[in-house]
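User: Could you write out the 3D structure of this protein bound to adenosine monophosphate? I've included everything you need below.
Assistant: Certainly. Input first, then the structure.
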Amino acid sequence: MTTEFTSLNLRPELMQAIAELGYTEPTPIQEGMIPLMLTGVDVIGQAQTGTGKTAAFALPILHQLESFSRQPHALVLAPTRELALQVASAMNEYGKHLRVRVLAVYGGQPYAPQINNLRRGVDVIVGTPGRLIDLMERDVLDLSGIKTIVLDEADEMLNMGFIEDVEKILAATPAERQTALFSATLPTRIRKLAERFMREPQSVTVKRPTLTLAATEQRYYYLHESDKLTAVTNLLEIEDATSVLIFARTRAETGLLASELTQRGFPAEALNGDLEQNARERILGRFRDNQIKVLVATDVAARGLDIDDISHVINYQIPDDPEVYVHRIGRTGRAGKTGIAISLFTPREKRRLRDIEAFTKQPLTLGKLPTADDIRARREQKVIDQMKVWLGRGRYQREREMIEQLVADGHELIEVAAAALKLARAGEKQRPVANVAEVAERPAYQSERGFTRGGERGSRFERGFTSERGERSSRGGRQSHEEGMTRLKMSKGKLHGVRPNDIVGTIAHHAEIPGSAIGKIRIEETFSLVDVPEVLVDKVILHNGNYRIGKHKFALERA
Ligand code: AMP
């Protein structure tokens, strides 16, 4: 059941603004939060950016603003200047027909304009904790009229070391105020803060980011870790990518990847927690203005990033949590545009693919990486297309004179044209083209679904079938299980000297099952797959901790 905005009984000026923004129905966090906040109770909203949380607190605050006395009635605390500006601008937008005055205050800016604005009178203040404390200490911030205080991204404020400032600000506001706390996670320190400063808070949790993924094409590539960089550059060559956000796992990786891409002719910047606020702003500004096309970020650094025009999100590393995947790719396909989400899976990550598909209830499509030939052809086509555009325009008077001179000097026209093109393409040298070796095998469960081998009983006859990268598909090493069998995975393989008989021996011995019950075994470089009858799986897993081959202990888990 979805609620209509009308059932929330918000004042007409707000309804008008909502309609103008094109919102048709409240998001789950809004649906849960708005009626609660309107009753005046304290609330905790567990929700991330992208869920519509800003409107979830902004609308009730604006609904309840009464006198517009220009004495601040509401205070929103935000961890970063960027979020403060975003919230202030959203509140101005929602409140535009009420002519509400919202002021953002944050560090790194001169005090005078902020103080002047405060003196002129505002209805809502949105600020970062440090600057708010500074203004309080300068006696220019009157918090005595505050009716509602919002802590936005409380966990981030904690991470950034602002929690004591937050407490100080809370303590300076009237005790009878309403407190709303928003946080993606609720670590102990935040719960303690809530216990201390909130009165019987009610909770609203949005389990999943309610992003619509419908407008996003989700594609994946299956490749080896060492080929990822080449794969990304090849994709950047061929995709119509205007604005690309690449997610890496660590700060170090963002820096490394950005510099590798830049060296290969794709100017990229890294966005990570090491950056000063000013540097971060600068980079985001350049990205927004399309001066740089590629941004490499960690999940943490990308929080609060609100850019609508991202054409491609690339998961260079696959997140452990499918929810993070959804959150990442929700950054493309916004504002009515189609987005493309590209994920690079290594053979070891096949399980994550399954988890993500199960979580999103949407399949990802296996893509085929462009070959060096594809890229060369594409580059040539681009040059030809650009030439045609220029030939159509005809605005090259000076160049024409230069060519005439060369012809007068005795050069063939066609030779001159070819030499000119050679010059024009000189920049391509910076971007060497290389093929990425296909991983011959698809993730296991795809092939399991994809082909059944009529009548062939995968069996112990295939035991001992170990294969090298790339040569296994013909034998279908991972084709469908025998009926009633379940595939288990262990984290030891060829590298550890594992042989099929060792596996059968130790499992049969410790789990006390007949060796003949064990089905197909596949031994890979770093792991092995073992089929056991479903009815014995629990028994086999129960003895994890005892299994050992030589000096290597191992455990089994469902593959
Ligand atoms: P937030 O989580 O507050 O950062 O909001 C994420 C995005 O969702 C913003 O671009 C909002 O403008 C948009 N948004 C918020 N509420 C709604 C709604 N009810 N319907 C459609 N879009 C919304």
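The pocket of adenosine monophosphate is lined by residues 23, 26-27, 30, 49-55 (CB under 6 Å).
User: Perfect, thank you.
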